[in-house]
Amino acid sequence: MNNNMKKVSALMVLSMALSGGAAYAATLDTTQSSSPTSVAVDSALSKSVNVTVNGTAITDGYWNKDGKEAMIALRDLTDALGIELKWNKENKSAELTKGNFWTLVMADKDQYSFNKMLITLGTAPQITDGKLFVPASFAEQVLHTQVTTAGNQVTISSEEDVKNVTERGVITGINPDTKYPSIHIGGAGTEGLVLNLGEDTVIKSADGKEIALTDLTIGMTVEAVHAPIMTMSLPPQTPTYAVTVVDTVAKESVTKSEDVLGTSGTIENVRTTKDQGTQIEISGSRLTETSPDHVILNISEDTKLVNQKGEAIKAEELTKDAKVIGFYSPMLTRSLPPIGNAWKVVVDTSGAEIVPFQ
To answer: Facing residues of 170 across strands?
Structure first.
């Protein structure tokens, strides 16, 4: 399998994503995102659309009802791109496969499978003269080809490389579900980003060794390579190709992933102790089942202070009413609220409210 197909191999199954222990299906609306250049139908334009794929002409297409989207014969398109098409006449659907790439297209339904998500393009596939036609935006948004429309000519060409996005963030939630695993980074609750993981997603440690999802813990800073397309859900979700750990939890703080606790919320008080140390009191919501929603954390010289992307910040950012996420070990006092030692505190420097974990 070449590198390009490995990159798109994550774009394969029907939509349902899990994050923070909550399950929900996500629908992605790409009608407002970049789409093939289109022209409106007028008296000077014929209803017929000439289509070429990688320099070869295929069956002519046509404009949809409002004249804003060119419709293209799906089987001709997939044949030209080397994608296998399996037609199911019972439910009028076409299953497309190429290597590990998989997607499903259903006649008259503006829903297209896109790696654990369903996306909408604003135009549903149509059966015309016994053939299934899809909008030109399908070729661009789902098949990741380059689409150019000029007058009644639509030109489609395979992209040499899928344009991906690299994102860095601190892990606030891990969903180990065997069917729909995911990682939540960059914020808690509806903030941040959910990274949907597929069979081909590569997870590596800070030293470059491949590791398993179970080796990750909340509080780790990771760098993820993911698709440029995301769901419109909160938090948004995206197919992810690679996750690399940038730093790890403090070894002296925890012995295993279950020992990492986290609280997301607002700093109620900042105080200096007798030994000139700093304490912050966080009130909000827990990130794990065993974490308290109200905790006092000791800040030492070894405590990592970072923003949502894991970038170091100054201690001056720890102010009353600041939105933070504190990570600490389960060694807490029995006081109310309990007191523990923070090994990392994430401060929201964007001004956006951190929504508590439910």
So the answer is: 221
- 10 Å CB burial of residue 27 (0-12, 13-18, 19+) is middle
Q: Which of 239, 238, 49, 28 minimizes the C-alpha distance to 121?
A: 28
For residues 55 and 80, give the distance between their C-alpha atoms in angstroms, rounded to a whole number.
10
- Tokens 């008259």, residue? 108
Residue range 155-200, pLDDT digits in tens: 998 865 446 789 999 999 999 988 889 999 999 999 999 999 988 8
- Reading the block at residue 137, the tokens are 């935006």
Note the pTM of the prediction, 2 decimals: 0.61
Q: Provide CB contacts within 8 A for 12, sequence distance 6+.
A: 100, 101, 102, 103, 113, 115, 198
Backbone angles phi, psi at 78, to 5 degrees: -70, -35
> What's the N-to-C CA distance of the chain in angstroms?
41
Most confident of 109-113, 115-119, 138-142, 323-327: 323-327
Torsion of CA 227, 231, 237, 242, to 10 degrees: -10
Quote the pLDDT of residue 221. Answer: 95
- How far lies 301's CA from each of 262, 266, 278, 317, 320, in Å? 19, 22, 10, 15, 20
How does the average pLDDT of the chain come out, rounded? 82
Give the HSE-up count for residue 314: Cα atoms under 13 Å, Cβ half-sphere.
1
Whole-number Å distance between alpha carbons of 356 and 55: 53
Q: For residue 107, how many other CB atoms are within 10 A of its CB?
A: 16
State the DSSP code for 88.
E
